[in-house]
Amino acid sequence: MSDLTETLADAGTKMSKAIEVAKEEFGAIRTGRAHPAMFSKIVVEYYGTYTPLAQLATIQVPEARTAIISPFDKSAMAAVEKAIRDSDLGVNPASDGVVVRVNFPQLTEERRKEYIKVARAKAEDSRVSIRNIRRAAKEAMEKMEKDGEIGKDDVARAEKDLEKVTSEHVTKVDDLLKHKESELLEV
What we know:
By secondary structure, the chain is α+β, with helices and mostly antiparallel strands. Helix content is 60%, strand content 14%.
């Protein structure tokens, strides 16, 4: 029976990680407000190595539509500016030699709809990931039953628990998506 509980616990842990990935993905989608998480996916070519922007600079958001990036090494200023410009944020950073300022224009209705589509796609990817985890756990349980390690009743009970855990995690993804959509529609 412990193998069964272990399989359920493992599936729950993996599903929780899928939720965390979804949160990170949603955090990187630009809304009307600037926030440091928007820069989490940006990598800068720094001395021939691709390095996350957060490791090369501090990111501050003094106003709703302005971000200030202060590179620790001022010689990386041009590389930081280029990485932000080339990113999918759709902004044009400006450097004054000390910091890089990023002004975020007001999102157009069309751009908001594009971002909502992106958010929905990322949510669906998370749901698919959760369902794949469920399928793998279910297969492991069926194999245990086939090998005679556990009984049919135990598997049936465990599968009900697995369904419950799966639907809880899918609901969390749906809630994250709803929150992101309302953020994007907020003017």
